[in-house]
Amino acid sequence: MVWVIIIILLYLISLNNYLLFYTVVELFSVYVAYVIFLIVWKSRNRLENRYLIILGVGYFFIGSVGFLSTLTFHGMGIFTGFATNLAVQLGIIARLLESASFLVAPLFLIRTGENQEGNSRTSENAVFAWKAFLAYAVTTAICLASIFIFQNFPDSYIQGGFTPFGVISGYMISFMLLCSLFLLYTARDRFEEDVLRLLSISIVLTIFAELSFIFYSQIDEASNVVSLLFKILSFYLIYKAIVDVGFEEPCSLLFRELKHREEDFRQKAFFLGDEYSHICRMIARRYLTEPRSMEEEDDRGEDPGSYRSFMQNLQGIGFQFSNDFKMVFIHGPAEKMTGYSKQNFLSGKVDWQEIVLAEDRPVILRKRKKLRLNPDFIVESEYRIRKKDGEIKWVREIIQKIPEKPESSGKFQGLVYDITERKMAEEALEKIDRIRIKEVHHRIKNNLQVISSLLSLQAEKFEDREVLEAFRESQNRVASIAMIHEELHESESTDTLDFSDYLKKLTADLFSSYRVGNSNINLKLNLEQVHLGMDTAIPLGIIVNELVSNALKHAFPAERGGEIDINFCRTETLAAKYGLSGTDKNCPDGEESTDGKNCRDYGSFRYILTVTDNGRGIPEEIDFQNTNSLGLQLVNILVEQIDGYIELKRSPGTAYIICFSNEKGEA
User: Fold this and answer.
1) Distance between CA atoms of residues 335 and 217, nearest Å
2) Cβ atoms < 10 Å from Cβ of 655
3) Among 39, 171, 321, 527, which is most exposed with the fewest C-beta within 10 angstroms?
């Protein structure tokens, strides 16, 4: 409804003052073009959608040429000595750049596809943005030089109407836009439905604007109205698709690649799962259908008749050990599995334990020790053996004690079979899953950094100090989460991170952000190396962000100097340092907290984090657990989220003590 009223008002303006109407429409188009460029250019280091990169860079030059065309329009009186032909020529160049951008952008989107890894792809896209900017700059400079310097650009308008070149250019621009619409449809899976619809309608309106323009034979106060109305609508829809959606729903536009990449990983994992099932079925089929004939006689001369039905379908090597685990009986494809003959094992020339890899032997020995102590115990082990030719094989062993009888007193029996193919499939699945998780961390980190950039862009619209401070606080909160995903992406582990290393980077960024103009504030860190799970690390990172930010903003007024101390360790470490034990270990000084509770009642916590400053302190009348401050509200909510406990000590300065555990993480 609002835009209907605006269109009607613009039409009424065009009837009375066409020059004003024309100027308003063109300047709005220039504004939209520059805003699109600004958003895309600010996000170029993290943006993966090359369609948006092409459009963003292109609209900078479209807007620049469009602005120049506005200044040269007859009646403006800025470029003297040039006729109406100049404005038409510049308008054609601007529209050619726009149609070429829409035509070329989908080609890059389709061509890049899924062929690159996350890190290399984003860095290459940043370089790609500069290359695109250079290409547009050269193309635009050549076109402008052909008009203003060489004056060899074909005439587009003469007194009486458009030249054949002007008409053909209009049809060519319309055809290029039509082709771009088709290419956009082929790459529709890269866009959310709303964004795709807005882009498509904008292209259609641009085609109508171009056709409406070339259908008139005169450039006057009435002939261009329809074309310009179509143009303002098309630019408005581009604004809605990229600017509005980019701010309001960034995941719909800038982060569409994450959703697409996640779906691809899910399909790959599903496919590999099918392959794994197929491998397992093939292994089972081979074991069940492969004929297994008995040797004509056992290597020890024993009668194998009583074992015949069992041995004929044995899936691996059957064996018996003496009380000291020396091989006394073996049957099955021993030489095929190990490279050694049965006689090698039975004669004692080769001990089975010797072919087990040294790293796996301790586990085997511990389990066999348990087996000796408990006759009902059944040992199941998976370990690696080295064949005679050096090849490594994975095997699964099941062993138990033979029920006590005079002839079998103290013996053990069992089965060992090859599981190498299964292990290879499992390792492949694990590798794919690890890569997928790291890729997700990388994408989330990039997406959060884009959100931070969007907050920075939005903040530039305001001058109020409190509003700017609110935006900066939000940026720091987002950055603290993004940093965790960056740490997880770069670490060997995919679900835990070195929290002490993370705190060093986080506090360094906070000091860089807040300590402008006051270099007398020092930071002291005493951090024990502890690995925390993501469910604990993210809330704790935001907590530290809020407490350190508050100290930097409020604890040291008027450039007053001071120190902020952060200590993080296991409660066992603290207990050992102060010679404490039992429930006392969380609170070496035994003082009571401000809420009347004593932290020694919380001795079951595994970790303790303190954030202390020697600033002016928090006034006694402020209840930090019931305050209007969003930062402290977040702190209390997040401490509760990690099932922790927080207490405040007010003198001297301010000290926050946070006790928590990390049940899901790795200590």
Assistant:
1) 94
2) 18
3) 171
- For 112, the token pair is 């890049």
pLDDT of the residue at 133: 93
d(C-alpha 656, C-alpha 260), whole Å: 43
CA-closest candidate to residue 642, choices 518, 497, 543: 543
* Helices (H), ranges, 215-249: 225-238, 245-248
Q: What is the dihedral of CA 355, 361, 364, 368, to 10 degrees?
A: 90
Residues near 474 by beta carbon (within 8 Å), at least 6 away in sequence: 455
Cβ atoms of residues 219 and 84 within 8 Å: yes
Give every CB contact of residue 595 below 8 A, 6+ residues apart in sequence: 625, 647
Backbone φ/ψ region at 191: left (φ over 0), alpha (ψ -120 to 50), beta: beta
Backbone CA torsion sign across 143, 147, 152, 153: positive
Which residues lie across from 533 on neighbouring strands?
Answer: 496
667 CB-near residues (< 8 Å, 6+ apart):
530, 531, 570, 606
Cβ-based neighbour number of residue 87 at 10 Å: 24
Element (H, E) at 34: helix 18-42
Cα dihedral 497, 501, 507, 512 in deg (nearest 10): -110
Neighbours of 218 (CB within 10 A): 14
H helix intervals, 115-255:
118-148, 164-186, 193-214, 225-238, 245-248, 250-253
**CA 206 to the chain's CA centroid:** 36
Contact 394, 374 (CB under 8 A): no
Distance CA 40, CA 55 (A): 8
What is the spatial distance between Cα 644 and Cα 610, in angstroms, rounded to a whole number? 13
Mean pLDDT, residues 170-199: 88
Q: Which helix (H) or strand (E) holds 40?
A: helix 18-42
331 strand-pairing partners: 318
> What are the structure tokens assigned to 234, written together?
């098309």
| Strand-pair category, 645-649 with 496-498 | unpaired
pTM of the model: 0.47
Tokens 């799962």 -> residue = 273
Q: Which amino acid is at 513?
A: S
CA separation for the pair 390, 338 (Å, rounded):
10
Band of pLDDT at residue 312, cut at 50, 70 and 90 = low
Separation CA 546–CA 117 (nearest Å): 35
Q: Could you give the CA distance from residue 618 to residue 625 in angstroms, rounded to a whole number?
A: 13
Kindly tell me the burial class for residue 127, based on how many C-beta atoms sit within 10 Å of its own C-beta (0-12, 13-18, 19 or more): exposed
Q: What is the largest CA-CA distance in the chain?
A: 121
Residue 637: count other Cβ atoms within 10 Å of its Cβ: 12
Torsion from C-alpha of 613, 619, 621, 622, nearest 10 degrees: -50
Give yes or no for a contact between 664 and 535, defined as CB atoms under 8 angstroms apart. Answer: yes
Give the burial class of 492: count Cβ atoms within 10 A of its Cβ; 0-12 exposed, 13-18 middle, 19 or more buried: exposed
pLDDT confidence tier of residue 117, bands split at 50, 70 and 90: very low
What residues contact 159, with CB distance under 8 A and at least 6 apart?
Answer: none
Q: Which of 557, 569, 652, 646 is nearest to 613 (CA)?
A: 652
First to last CA, the chain: 60
pLDDT band for position 346 (cuts 50, 70, 90)? confident
Are 664 and 634 a contacting pair, CB within 8 Å? no
Structure tokens that stand for 496 in this block: 């835990």
